[in-house]
Amino acid sequence: MSESYALKLYVAGQTPKAVRAFANLRKICEEHLRGRYSIEVIDLVENPALGRGDQILALPTLVRRLPTPIKKIIGDLSNTERVLVGLDLRPRRPNA
Amino acid sequence: MANQKSSRVALKKAPTGIPGLDDITNGGLPLGRPTLVAGGPGSGKTLLGVSFLVHGAQQFSEPGVLMTFEENADELAQDVRSLGFDLDSLVAQKKLIVDYIHVDRSEIEETGEYDLEGLFVRLEHAIKQIGAKRVMLDTIETLFGGLKDSGILRAELRRLFRWMRDRGVTAVVTAERGEQMFTRQGLEEYITDAVISLDHRVHDQISTRRIRVVKYRGSTHGTNEYPFLIDRDGITVLPVTSLLLEHEAPSERVSSGLAALDDMLGGKGFYRSSTVLLSGTAGTGKTTLAAHFVDAACARGEKCLYFLFEESPQQLVRNMKSAGLDIQRWMDKGLLKFHADRPNRHGLETHLLEMHHAVEMFDPDVVVMDPITNLMAVGTQTDVRAMLTRVIDYLKTRGVTALFTSLATSAQSLEATEAMISSLMDSWILVAINEEAHKRNRWLYVLKSRGMPHSNDVRPFVIGNKGIELRPVPAGNSDSKAKPRKARRAK
To answer: What CA–CA distance (Å, rounded) separates A23 from B270?
Structure first.
């Protein structure tokens, strides 16, 4: 478990949801990926063209670029369990 | 009243550029508002939307944004290229932006609150980039398959349509037809300005596409179902009721191929660019009469296109030869061309389309359709009439003289069965047989012929080895003394 995580967080301006998502993400990364993660925040209001590459529709969207495969998690990341599952840091429940 | 009328602001429209559709919508889609286009898979809704965008960009200086949620942009471009649309070149000219959003539920984890601001940002960005006036969302309903929280989705779609109205973009939003509701996800609840329904029905193994304007707030519109076709030129709607009767009406006359028959038609034959119906029971000589008409046209050096729905060209050529008419020579000279097709091979729309193409390619002066009654097997009477109206309109616009044969099932119903189509015809000639003791006698008469005095005689005729020969009316019965003498000249 020494892979490093390259994460992108897509938002549109400093909305409450965006602020919440970033805070939640920082907290989860510090707890589970300390020292081996990077977060790039992409504000589509400033850079709308960047939404195209990762097929961004919903906001906020967290994209795990590395390790592959690419994973996407949408929402304000308030449900830590689901974020961990989405990032493959927790096994998926068998019936999921 | 007058005051009320002047204060009413006419709804502005964005023309689709789709032949026929702008007629039935009285000018196009509501400007600056979304229109819902619903239909089953393969009903042509994507093509309708793409046509709207492409025509907007090419003909009306209105750039467009195509946001697709289904196919990827490459596949889409390929699909529409086969229909004559080059999306890539429009994209290069900055008249079109194609954006592709695909959402796969299995790739996405949802946690907590979100919205579809990403879609808004991208749409806004695309609209601003090229100054788009038109937008197409194809098919936004697929998002319901990609996102779990349909509550958020519905709220966001409502916001999206309001947002597009505020932006003043004219939008086409495609949707799948639903079982319970009009569309699968009830989008008609959010888009109420205009709703168009597309349908691809198979009846008796023959498919017909139809379009209907279900709703158009603030505007009159054609309420019928109209057949439409999709060919290499895109969509064409056949709005029979909107046809304009503005053809030229040449005073030039063309021979029927029989001098004696020409005599009955005011002495000069049919008008050029008119329509002639030739109806009768089986074996009365309709095709032979048609062959005379063709023979005369080709002898004048005119080009003739002959649509056959019953026989093969070879068979017809052979049969005419036995009746003394050599039409093979006109084929050899390239003046006569046959287009033989079984009516039930495809639907009326496809027949119409093929006729259009054949006429366009051969550019004939004269067209024969033999017999149009066989087309009745393919569609309802209303459909066939609509199709013939379209054909006639098209031929008249091109200045083509057209002859249609029609098979009547019984002598009694001769005049009745054709009532439906006869009003489309300028001249109507009936051929029939009556049986005497040991002989069947053929006879013909001119039931009507617009714009000329015509004979009221019922003329006996025979088909010999020199074709059709009209016989004089028994003495005393004719309305013209000159007839018997002229009839002999027909040989």
So the answer is: 87
